Amino acid sequence: MSETALKPESGPDAKRWRALVFIALAQLMVVLDATIVNIALPSAQQDLGISDGNRQWVITAYALAFGGLLLFGGRIADLWGRKRTFVTGLIGFAGASALGGAATGEAMMLGARALQGVFGALLAPAALSLLAVMFTDAKERAKAFGIYGAIAGGGGAVGLILGGFLTEYLNWRWTFFVNIPFAVVAALGAYFVIREPAGGRNRSPLDIPGVVLSTLGLVSLVYGFTRAESAGWSDAVTVTMFVASAVLLAAFVLTEAKVKSPLLPLRVLTERNRGGVYMSLGLAVIAMFGLFLFLTYYLQIVQGYSPVKTGFAFLPMMVGMITGSTQIGARLMTRVAPRLLMAPGFLLAAVGMLLLTQLEIGSSYAGLILPAQLMLGLGMGTAFMPAMSLATHGVEARDAGVASAMVNTSQQVGGAIGTALLNTIAASATTAYLTDHAAGATNPKLLQAQAMVEGYTSAIWWAVGILVVSALIAATLVTTGHQGGTSAPADSSDGVEDEVKIPVMAH
């Protein structure tokens, strides 16, 4: 087969860099939404009369729909076309955001959040798979994924800043309305600028049993961890959710091994490098989400920062992420093996996290929190960038959507686990500290603050360990060479002609 047969019909798309702007804008909107609503939640709860018991559903409704439907969204992108799926996701997300901003009661708010999750699950895998099929030259791919990786990692901090501003100076409703201009600009830009390479569709019939089993299995898993945070790990419903999730996901894997056109072809998972990326990314996100949560609480409750000041306090991490992703990861990705960026990156993040185990009530921001955040950001940015690229590197074009969805799924499930697991560890340590020191306490307020900080540092120790495990997984499982001219071997084509594979050789 000739070399020309492996390339898109008319060579690289001349508008691909303009297309990246709109893909990045859409990704920023999705990542923002993970944190922006957290800051607005207390005000929204008061205005809409949402009970304390139901408050968590504003976050959980989005997480369940988004996490549960990601694999389905990735497969729809492969089947229906990535550009069409991307634009549909953006328009739907804008409509759901308008509904959330205009919410008049609890039911309307929860429905809007679930809808945001549904359209986010269409949008996120389509965005990443568009990058995978549009940027095929090794150096260009490194730059494009450097920008994408910086947004994927640092967008959460932007959400905290923007959420603080909008809540403090306008109204909580604007944390929803702000998505509309993002979505409209990205959708219009995508419609006119993005040109999807020919021959990358997967027109196999949809695997309905796979869709049902994966969606129910992932929803059970995410809900199990979310419920454990409030009801405890031994709660009957929590245990039932975990058992159901294990059974459903095991049935899903068995189904995918047998059906002719699987929702998630097991070749996407069993390739050693991609499997290593999904595992190490998911674990790293557990640590990251825990940190966002504890540092937000620490700065606002213990140090008394305003929402806006708290948002700005996260800026060093964002600067570190952007630098690590675009200046270190993107520049070195074509020269060194991915594991030589990922493993040291996760270890540097672990050292930053280790610094935060020294937190005390009166800890200096400049002396402790700022250097810790810079190290965390630099490490995560350096590791995330090659991980994002490698997750879709060498995969067949027909599998690009579902491979991209697996990246998002590992992050989403990692986020749910991180929030629940580390929060539970922190709460247990806080309770134990209060019990041990209550007898001799002369200042109850001071004791409460000390107990909270003790809880945060206990959980952060766990996060350090999780990041070290991420580094070990990256070092041992990710064995491919650098991506500057040779590729990881593409998966077996199962009878699909070579023309539909993503060209991963440098042109």
Automatic annotation (TrEMBL):
Membrane topology per record: Multi-pass membrane protein
Any single Pfam family the record assigns to this protein: MFS_1
Location within or outside the cell: Cell membrane
Location of the Major facilitator superfamily (MFS) profile domain: 19-483
Keywords: Antibiotic resistance, Cell membrane, Membrane, Transmembrane, Transmembrane helix, Transport
4Fe-4S listed as a keyword: no
Protein name: MFS transporter
Organism: Streptomyces atriruber
Organism taxonomic ancestry: Bacteria, Bacillati, Actinomycetota, Actinomycetes, Kitasatosporales
